[in-house]
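Example (one chain per record):
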Amino acid sequence: MLLRRARELALVPALLLLLLLGALVNDSFLTERNLISVLGSSAALAMVVLAESLVLITGKFDLSLESVVGIAPALGALLVLPVAQAGFGTEWPAALALLSILATGAVLGAFNGVLVVKFKLNAFIVTLAMLIVLRGLLVGATEGKTLFGLPESFYTLATSTFIGIPMSVWVAAGAFGAAGLMLKYHRWGRALYAIGGNPEAARAAGIRVERVMLGVFVAAGVLAALGGLMQTGYVGAINANQGQNMIFTVFAAAVIGGISLDGGKGTMFGALTGVLLLGVVQNLLTLAQVPSFWIQAIYGGIILVALMIARVTTGRAQD
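Predicted structure:
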């Protein structure tokens, strides 16, 4: 128990060490502007990590979340844009288009959940197929173009601030806080851990396993769609590659944050520190002008190290 707890808290001194290293490497690293930039650029990732963490705790996977990050806001944009700007020409009100983004995430999450929970299909294969399908739909719907000229409300989460910090950061922090309290104190949260630990025992204890797991997939889809909206506001546009390869970073953040790939273990605090750690690492590498492909290689190395640490701290083999 102490080893597992230490695994989650180990990222805190690691973060402090990276902050110290960054201050030594680059004078602008610890400036208020740069630190806020790190938080702002990590907000969308944080929402997807939160979504994936909830699914992982139940012992399942959802690889399609990176495609939801792209397709959900793109659909909202296409519904609100005129034909002249590559939209569908429906020109929906911005508020309705924003609701459609969250609805798209919920529908896609429900579809994944039905295939995995009701039809008993392998979650890894199902969501991998959905990742590919949704990526193709995104490219086809946008015709490979970048969507500009969106209503200001599409950018609000990233551009509006409260005490100098983007609203997207506050929303992500609030979502992690709410999820952490739910997992620790609410019966639904305890049910997630029980299902991830032993679904048959959870079912015998009276937990409606199928209903809870379906709800997790829906919630994950909504969170990923919201993360996609944050990403849209941060970038200022939507392109056909939005969210591509994001799932690797998501898994890296979740795993190094202590979320078990075997299910039933992990906390939101650990997942959040994983997000912050990768955000700081990426910022450091960017300031050092390290090419992006090396950043991906470093993320892969971080995952491998985290898996080895998990093997030691849990004391059991990983399937």
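Caption: The chain has a mean pLDDT of 91.
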